[in-house]
């Protein structure tokens, strides 16, 4: 049927005469076959077009939009860091850079050569340039040189006609006006690396810096601010065609520190180039007024890249300039640990302040002999005298009686051997050893370990910041916590109120007994630190000396008779320590001072600590705005 | 039918009165509807090139319109030529086309990694475009002398096979895979329609795949890469797969009604490669949607089937085969180009006839349409009678 109709159609297509032509018949049939094939082929393409445009259209439409738009982040300015009086200690310095836009110059290499004749480029610049030019698109500027001086800029501007494609651009870099003075506590920034970028895309922006130490690191997210963004329509090669949307970012927060730069500078000048650390704390509220760790380094070098030679110099220096000694330097506290042992003993009820022990100059336990620093002993001593003379035997005895655990518990409560939560990532906890801790390290704890811990030797390790906190807590009886951030964007939180800090669980009369002992150290005849007595009339200071051996004194050395630690090589000499607070009757400031290998705390550390305390007290009326209705005596 | 009779009578009387009206009479017989459709397709091309030029007649649409105008004149002029004249020029034109293909291999200009262009009289000419038309004419001429009966003897098929294979080889050497396939396709279609016996076709089915394999081994690396990336375009999104992916994205983003004229983001933002030449259809489909794209396909199909119908209606073997060759040429252009932009076959430099920007393709397509129209105009001519018709 169908076939016949087809035949009829063929007849109509061909006049009768041609129907006899077999060639034409074949042609017509085959041409019709071809036409059917052609129709089918184009039909299939139409069907495929339908699939692409309608069935999967949404998918491809999304891809097209992603093609079309490009979102770029705008770098927010980094927040400033200021001291407690608003002096800027970390600023954003404008950084004049020379950029080269490769598409605007006919001969990139030639332009670079001419540029380097005006402003010299070193090998590092050149290899970086070559890399950037190869990898970036022609309309993305590459950086020729940054940190241009006015002089160099003037020369570039003058030669502008000979330098096609060279343009001057302003960016920012971090600058630290006080340089090494605050390097440890403020920290420094450096360009972000791949791991940082993986965490936050914002850090991929050119010119973005990330805090690598100190406050810059701990407050990085606040300082960094929120990135703005700009959405742009781009063409296939990435050139911006139009701006679709722009959102300005928010600049980073301004962080105000508790540090007083003036005081810090004064203390720094007093310390000089000794390897030492000093912490000055407001003992009522835990504000750290000064944190010196010497020697120091220039923090701005980390932004532009530290040279190999400079790095070698830092790392080879015995005095460890890169380490923040105030929070990361751990030292045996020596005799400064004795008030903590005393407090532990009093609180545990093992002794009363009036209990007396006899000091013959040594303490014998299980066949071992522990010497007092005074060869011939102190005779009969109670707590007051034991602190005043810093009698070792008294504390050997006490520690031996109560054991290590109460000492560790009390020390932690007083701020020793524990993380204090200051805003410095580099802080270390130190250590108050316990039998349990020793066990963990597969060693047996013996009685002798407890005895030497009683005078802050052996495994005991604390940081200068902990010592200052410890002095503050003894002075106030409150668990004040040290901190460095005073305000964010000018907003002071509740931390500065002394009531913010909880009272310590120890009996106030024991604190009083210990404070009296520390008062005697400085102010009574035969105390260990008469040199630390303040010269300011009506103001007295309480303190405690410490000399921490870094090497066991052998019997041979001791018996040779003329043992003098000052004759040892520098790195074997004991550390000199001093902790103090003042005014004695209404404590306001606490100071801790550690002089590495300074020999004797009483001779070296105590007078220096007195000077630091004097500086601090003298700055007080000028610079401190005491809040109305609050008197110094509030601190109790 | 009856209404047309007075007109025919009028025309016959006119011709008898004055022979110089012969041209007029021929013009009368030109299928102006078909010409209108051609103009319509060229119009689509103008609109698309205007968009590809970023909403401006420069640099694509304007020159292309001028070429089309010239092409239109060429087409009508060629349409006036009788089959006798066409047969006479077939061999010289074919020889010239081979010569040009050789010239392009010797001194061609490299475009996209292949030598396709040659400078002629100050303009760039792409001889492979012209070779297709010349071949169609040559084959029609050959087969007009070889009747259906004669084709039973395979010896008659050897010379035309050589006529096809020589330009195929030369074009492959350029290398231009797409055009080589089209030339081969034209040859195959003409052989088939001329009455090649089925047993002959079956015999060829054995060696041809072998030849294909050899040909693949002679492909350039970039052509092989196209074949591999065609299978997995996402494996190399910025390299050889880029064209296909971006083209698909553009098509998909068009949807049913398109993004609007001059608002196709893929095309306007230059994500589309060669959007004014090979990928012009993508621009159309992105901006006009599936509706626009489908209408273009329908228009192309109407032109193809119209050409085939003209072939069937021709009363002489030469005209039939010539019209068929031209129509198949046009069809293969469309097929290869559309398949290419839709990612159905590997990419090769084949334009969309009359729409894509480019002078050689435009003029040769118009030359082809001129030949087609000549067949139509002279469809009742008794040229080249096969001997067996008289028996």
Automatic annotation (TrEMBL), chain A:
InterPro entries under this entry? Beta-lactam/transpept, Beta-lactam/transpept-like, PBP_dimer, PBP_dimer_sf, PCN-bd_Tpept, Penicillin-binding_protein_2
Protein name per its UniProtKB record: Peptidoglycan glycosyltransferase
Q: Where is the Penicillin-binding protein dimerisation domain?
A: 75-244
Q: Which GO terms describe its biological process?
A: cell wall organization; peptidoglycan biosynthetic process; proteolysis; regulation of cell shape
Q: Which GO terms describe its molecular function?
A: penicillin binding; peptidoglycan L,D-transpeptidase activity; serine-type D-Ala-D-Ala carboxypeptidase activity; transferase activity
Q: Where does the Penicillin-binding protein transpeptidase domain lie? A: 277-613
Membrane-topology descriptor: Single-pass membrane protein
Q: Which organism is it from?
A: Acetobacter oeni
TrEMBL record, chain B:
The reaction(s) annotated as catalysed by this protein in its Swiss-Prot or TrEMBL entry are: [GlcNAc-(1->4)-Mur2Ac(oyl-L-Ala-gamma-D-Glu-L-Lys-D-Ala-D-Ala)](n)-di-trans,octa-cis-undecaprenyl diphosphate + beta-D-GlcNAc-(1->4)-Mur2Ac(oyl-L-Ala-gamma-D-Glu-L-Lys-D-Ala-D-Ala)-di-trans,octa-cis-undecaprenyl diphosphate = [GlcNAc-(1->4)-Mur2Ac(oyl-L-Ala-gamma-D-Glu-L-Lys-D-Ala-D-Ala)](n+1)-di-trans,octa-cis-undecaprenyl diphosphate + di-trans,octa-cis-undecaprenyl diphosphate + H(+)
Annotated transmembrane regions: 32-53, 65-83, 89-109, 154-172, 179-199, 288-309, 321-345, 357-377
- The EC number(s) attached to this protein equal 2.4.99.28
Task: Quote a single Gene Ontology cellular component term.
Answer: cell division site
Which PROSITE patterns has this protein been placed in?
A: FTSW_RODA_SPOVE
For molecular function, the Gene Ontology terms on record are: lipid-linked peptidoglycan transporter activity; peptidoglycan glycosyltransferase activity
Q: What is its main location?
A: membrane
Q: Where does the UniProt annotation locate this protein?
A: Cell inner membrane; Membrane
Which is a Pfam family this sequence falls into?
Answer: FTSW_RODA_SPOVE
The record's comment on protein family reads: Belongs to the SEDS family. MrdB/RodA subfamily.
What's this protein's function?
Peptidoglycan polymerase that is essential for cell wall elongation.
Protein name as it appears in the record: Peptidoglycan glycosyltransferase MrdB
Q: Give the originating organism.
A: Acetobacter oeni
